[in-house]
């Protein structure tokens, strides 16, 4: 998960504290020739935002005054369709770079945001539940793996 979680109700293991966001676009897009993209690049441009609530609020905050000048065409909670939406010309997709594995074709590319925007990613489970033996073993493994 990314975003803010009530840590009084959940245990967690941080899996990444540097999950930078990027924008996906068609390879032949003029912004694809840039090393990075800035909020002003999206003045009057169609955009696709991943998630509602905390995630979309982060993108809105990053865009600042350019959010009102952009054209939000889609807000989706389904990260796997983002590349398809971009390929079909619906706009520029904002998503964490770790999701770039979804870009299995050569028709889209990613560019990092400047200023950067990042998220902490973690695994969470409820404090008030007794985990199964399998889940306990999994949690132990994850804790050892991420706490080297």
- Roughly how many Å is the radius of gyration? 17 Å
- Specify the CATH architecture: 3-Layer(aba) Sandwich
Number of helices: 4
Secondary-structure element string: EEHHEHEEEH
Please report the total strand number as a whole number.
6
Q: Stretches where pLDDT falls below 50 for ≥5 residues? A: none
> Strand-residue fraction?
25-35%
| Mean pLDDT rating | 84
Task: Examine the coordinates and then state which fold CATH places here, giving the name of the CATH topology.
Answer: D-Maltodextrin-Binding Protein, domain 2
Shape: elongated
Total domain units: 1
Major sheet characteristics? 6 strands, mixed
What's the CATH C level? Answer: Alpha Beta
Tags for this entry?
alpha/beta; elongated; 32% strand; 6 strands; single chain; 4 helices; D-Maltodextrin-Binding Protein, domain 2; 148 residues; 6-stranded mixed β-sheet
């Amino acid at each position: 998960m990314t975003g803010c979680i009530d840590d009084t109700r959940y245990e967690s293991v941080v899996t990444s504290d540097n999950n930078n966001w990027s924008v996906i676009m068609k390879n032949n897009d003029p912004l694809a020739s840039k090393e990075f993209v800035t909020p002003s690049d999206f003045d009057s441009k169609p955009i696709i935002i991943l998630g509602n609530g905390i995630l979309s609020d982060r993108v809105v905050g990053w865009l600042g005054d350019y959010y009102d000048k952009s054209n939000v065409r889609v807000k989706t909670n389904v990260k796997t369709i983002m590349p398809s939406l971009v390929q079909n010309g619906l706009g520029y997709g904002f998503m964490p770079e770790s999701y770039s594995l979804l870009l299995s074709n050569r028709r889209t590319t990613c560019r990092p945001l400047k200023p950067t925007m990042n998220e902490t990613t973690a695994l969470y489970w409820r404090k008030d539940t007794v985990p199964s033996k399998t889940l306990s073993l999994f949690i132990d493994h994850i804790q050892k793996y991420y706490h080297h």
